[in-house]
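// run 5 | inverse folding | seed 20
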């Protein structure tokens, strides 16, 4: 490493190509061995930041035709020369390169975010695009961008050998030689690579990082996940990547023990194939002070613009999440109502229903919640949304229920195919106007700029994986810098909690997340009224973000601290956390600006939260005594005359009544039903912008509703709003029950940009079963299955819903039917109208001849109507024909044949009912 010569002294500055002859100054040492192939024309080129004052990237082409990139900050080396290059299945573009041309431009973009550390963004970057020719004539494009907060580069590959960026052929990348080089003694905060990104981070050095790695290394090489933080003197470097989608795979960093070089490795060491021209992801280094890193938007700046034009439906906010503190609650309708009630009382925007929910009661829960001004987020295992067929089945359904967004879990992969899945579900959710949170996911790489309905991403070892106050500090300077982080804080009542109450309360300020999922239950929050008061005020969108004090390293007192301030409108929220022994935390208030400010502070005192109020100016420093592993929060607002606190009023949705008549009715196909409805506010301030109507958009195909919506600009208490509609049942409607939604909406009394309050009731229209109907088209009164859900019109498949294959028994394919895994049973309401049930039953061919099952048909009170002997895989289908005259509840059951449930994929092929005409 050069110790006395800066880049600015070695080469020219700005966007001018430097002299092609080799520099006579001593070069900085590269950490990759140099090739001894035939000499090429060497050169050195620089790209400066827009102000030409702080950051400089130097690109070197040595005599072997190999590329290296280095970075200076303020004339001091930060990144040493790191090797660049890429290999495809057709070309080796890592050596023997010669410069063809250089093109320069300034990239300036202004854009608006729905989430993140700063909603309004403005980015200026200098970009130089270099074109090199390899020994076989193939061309390599290299784009280098430099901003005031970092440096990034990407490769540009054509689909042909004729040039860069114009071909349309297929490009297969087999590996990159991209790397970042640092002094071996640079401090490092690293995370052993795992596709969940849920491993612990460790403080070490660039050269000794492998000593912190679990025994998952290959020889002397260990893998680390993004983002990875390094410190060199007063400069910090955060390595990550940006703009990754289905054209490519994610990557991570490989490190050889004792080296200062971190090399980019593609996911699973697998090649990626795309249609040309291909722009690879940006290899990104955020560079600067810690405040620069904490406020950096570089990862988003490098991402493609938003693909969603109208973002008015996207609403970040706080939710209460029951699973963390009450693991069985997502399967308990009544308990979930408790969480809805809590969210409504404290005006949290959402409640999150996690694994265990039942489709039989979620629509009712959604209606209950929305009438109280609370929207529902619904959890999914990605195995239920893996295919397009699964997404087409589930996502429109939950949208029709009124669900606001989904949380999708367990992807655990950085492969190209997984990023193609991300592309697909993001297109689907944007089209349906569903927000989304990715759990069990990869890190954000600018995703939230391109797809603004993404509210948060896990990719972190969060509260559900136990507590670690030191980890909390590290995350503020690593993972959360690159995008929203679903950490799920504030489990105040957690048994054996490892941090203080104030530390927990500070986490949703220290960490940015478009959806912030609070982790305690209603009883735990109620025991902390001071925390409740603060959380009622907490936004999840920010106009500014600043590091106030602290850092990932130890403070002089031996602890670690992070104090971060975020502005929303005219109010500042400050969160401070500490790891280690108790200490006095200090927060210089220079970020406040002019004038006097009222500051409410909440900290620890003898195991309790205490609140204080004082008046300050920007010249003051807030000092807060903190407990061991403690912290504090502060809320600041302009100190106007007569103001005694910084709280905005918490305005809840009033209780209203919506009464449809009738609530249930029987109607045949093609007939009409009259529906009346009355909406009323029993007491309170008049409602504004009230509208009452049947939701025509959610009627089944072939149905219609006649009659106008009724409206009132103002609806005072005690004055009903009434309407009448005529609903026509579709002529082709099969038998069964259909919910006709009647909806009243009114302006949220909280005002602002809050969406209207949605009050809904349904009229249940029962269409008598008639003619020939298929069991797979009927609702299930109950359902159990040995593995995954019972599938309709496909085999059982795997654990996910809608993931099976065509129903196939001994080579015969059935277009309709049920796919089960023993032991299993479904119950269907026949209304006493069906005289016969028929099916062709057997073990699905997908088991490869394995499996053994029995089939049983039961009537009312469990009376057996028919049963088979044990049927084994590979056998022909057995025909069942059962008299069901007078039966109201039909049960279709599958047994495991007495040898366990493995491979017991049982098919009811062409399961159909003959019903009254």
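// decoded
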């Amino acid at each position: 490493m050069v110790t006395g010569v800066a880049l600015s002294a070695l080469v020219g500055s700005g966007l001018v190509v430097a002299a092609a002859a080799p520099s006579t100054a001593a070069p900085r040492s590269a950490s990759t061995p140099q090739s001894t192939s035939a000499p090429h024309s060497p050169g050195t080129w620089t790209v400066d930041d827009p102000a030409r004052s702080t950051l400089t990237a130097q690109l070197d082409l040595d005599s072997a035709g190999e590329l290296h990139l280095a970075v200076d900050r303020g004339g001091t080396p930060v990144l040493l020369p790191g090797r660049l290059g890429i290999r495809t299945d057709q070309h080796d573009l890592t050596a023997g390169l010669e410069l063809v041309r250089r093109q320069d431009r300034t990239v300036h973009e202004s854009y608006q975010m729905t989430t993140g550390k700063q909603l309004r963004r403005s980015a200026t970057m200098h970009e130089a695009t270099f074109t090199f020719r390899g020994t076989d004539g193939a061309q390599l494009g290299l784009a280098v961008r430099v901003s005031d907060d970092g440096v990034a580069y990407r490769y540009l590959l054509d689909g042909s050998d004729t040039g860069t960026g114009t071909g349309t052929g297929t490009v297969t990348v087999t590996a990159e030689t991209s790397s970042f080089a640092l002094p071996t003694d640079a401090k490092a905060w690293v995370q052993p690579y795992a596709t969940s990104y849920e491993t612990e981070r460790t403080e070490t050095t660039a050269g000794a990082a492998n000593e912190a790695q679990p025994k998952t290394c290959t020889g002397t090489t260990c893998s680390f996940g993004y983002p990875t933080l390094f410190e060199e003197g007063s400069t910090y470097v955060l390595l990550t990547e940006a703009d990754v989608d289905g054209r490519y795979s994610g990557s991570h960093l490989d490190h050889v023990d004792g080296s200062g070089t971190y090399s980019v490795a593609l996911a699973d060491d697998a090649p990626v194939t795309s249609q040309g021209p291909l722009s690879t992801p940006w290899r990104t280094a955020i560079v600067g002070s810690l405040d620069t890193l904490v406020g950096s938007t570089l990862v988003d700046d490098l991402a493609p613009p938003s693909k969603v034009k109208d973002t008015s439906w996207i609403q970040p906010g706080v939710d209460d999440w029951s699973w963390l503190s009450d693991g069985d609650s997502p399967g308990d309708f009544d308990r979930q109502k408790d969480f809805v009630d809590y969210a409504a009382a404290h005006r949290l925007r959402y409640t999150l229903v996690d694994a265990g929910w039942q489709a039989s009661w979620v629509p009712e829960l959604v209606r209950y919640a929305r009438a109280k001004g609370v929207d529902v987020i619904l959890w999914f295992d990605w195995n239920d949304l893996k295919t397009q067929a699964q997404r087409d089945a589930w996502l429109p359904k939950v949208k029709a229920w009124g669900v606001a967004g989904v949380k999708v879990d367990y992807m655990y992969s950085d492969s190209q195919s997984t990023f193609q899945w991300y592309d697909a579900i993001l297109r689907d959710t944007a089209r349906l106007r569903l927000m989304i949170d990715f759990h069990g996911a990869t890190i954000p790489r600018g995703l939230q700029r391109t797809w603004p309905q993404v509210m948060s991403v896990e990719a972190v070892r969060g509260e559900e994986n136990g507590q670690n106050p030191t980890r909390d500090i590290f995350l503020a300077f690593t993972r959360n810098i690159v995008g929203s982080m679903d950490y799920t804080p504030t489990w105040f009542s957690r048994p054996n909690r490892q941090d203080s109450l104030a530390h927990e309360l500070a986490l949703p300020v220290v960490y940015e997340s478009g959806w912030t999922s609070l982790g305690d239950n209603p009883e735990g929050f109620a025991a902390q009224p001071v925390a409740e008061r603060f959380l009622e005020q907490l936004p999840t969108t920010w106009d500014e973000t600043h590091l106030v004090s602290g850092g990932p390293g130890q403070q002089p007192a031996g602890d670690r601290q992070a104090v971060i301030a975020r502005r929303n409108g005219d109010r500042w929220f400050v969160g401070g956390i500490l790891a280690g022994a108790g200490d006095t935390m200090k927060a210089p208030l220079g970020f406040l600006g002019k004038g006097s400010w009222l500051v409410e502070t909440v900290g620890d005192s003898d195991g309790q939260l205490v609140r204080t109020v004082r008046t300050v100016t920007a010249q003051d420093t807030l000092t807060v005594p903190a407990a061991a592993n403690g912290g504090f929060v502060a809320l600041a607002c302009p100190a106007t005359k007569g103001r005694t606190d910084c709280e905005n009023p918490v305005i809840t949705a009033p209780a209203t009544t919506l009464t449809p008549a009738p609530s249930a009715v029987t109607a045949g196909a093609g007939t009409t039903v009259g529906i009346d409805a009355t909406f009323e506010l029993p007491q309170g301030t008049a409602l504004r912008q009230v509208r009452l109507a049947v939701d025509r958009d959610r009627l089944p195909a072939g149905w219609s509703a006649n009659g106008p919506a009724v409206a009132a600009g103002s609806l005072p208490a005690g004055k009903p709003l009434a309407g009448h509609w005529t609903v026509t049942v579709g002529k082709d409607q099969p038998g069964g029950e259909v919910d006709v939604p009647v909806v009243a909406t009114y302006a949220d009394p909280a005002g602002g940009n809050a969406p209207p309050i949605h009050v809904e009731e349904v009229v249940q229209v029962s269409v008598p079963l008639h003619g020939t109907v298929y069991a797979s088209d009927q609702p299930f009164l109950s359902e159990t299955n040995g593995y995954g859900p019972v599938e309709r019109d496909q085999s059982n498949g795997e654990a996910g819903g809608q993931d099976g294959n065509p129903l196939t028994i001994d080579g015969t394919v059935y277009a309709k039917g049920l796919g089960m895994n023993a032991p299993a049973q479904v119950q269907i309401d026949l209304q006493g109208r069906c005289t016969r049930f028929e099916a062709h039953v057997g073990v699905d061919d997908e088991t490869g001849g394995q499996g053994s099952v029995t089939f049983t048909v039961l009537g009312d009170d469990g009376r057996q109507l028919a049963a088979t002997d044990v049927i084994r895989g590979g056998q022909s289908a057995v025909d069942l024909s059962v008299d069901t005259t007078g039966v109201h509840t039909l049960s279709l059951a599958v047994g495991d044949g007495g040898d366990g449930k493995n491979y017991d994929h049982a098919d009811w092929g062409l399961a159909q009912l003959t019903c009254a005409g």
